[in-house]
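Assess the record.
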Amino acid sequence: MAKVINPLLSFSASGQIGKSLVFTKNGRVREYVVPANPKTAGQMAVRNMMGDIQRELKLLGSVLRAELRSSFGAQWNSAIVGELTANDKAAYTAYLAEYNAFTTQQKADWATADTATPILAVKGALLYAAASAIYDMALRMGVSVSITLPAAGNHSTVAAEWVDSTP
């Protein structure tokens, strides 16, 4: 049921009228459509990847989180997700190729340093990819963030910077 303020379509309205019109929060009117959620394999893979990235970013300490907010803006996490998933995951694929070139022991070290629980991503690879994306974005933008350039042997340094909450 729509709530109308003053004559219809002259001031404001919210909600929907039957199964034909929907009034959005910003005052626009659109056609009502039945929401679809087909849960295809491709759609679930994308959702799981986005969830994995967000689970990794939730582990950020307050120091790096504040630096990212001031450097990348209020939607800093969306910028990082966008960096990793843009152009059919080109950056993520490149970071994963770098990670796959590590030795078995180096991969195990990164997996140990990664405290997130990914669904789709390889444990350790996503920490490397997210940290690399942050470092590369900061470098391109000319801003300073307190994260070391991720490399094969510095998993403990990056992991400590990732979760540090001490200013």
Remarks:
- The chain has two domains: 1-35, 41-163.
- The helical segments are 41-57, 62-72, 76-100, 104-113, 125-141, 155-163.
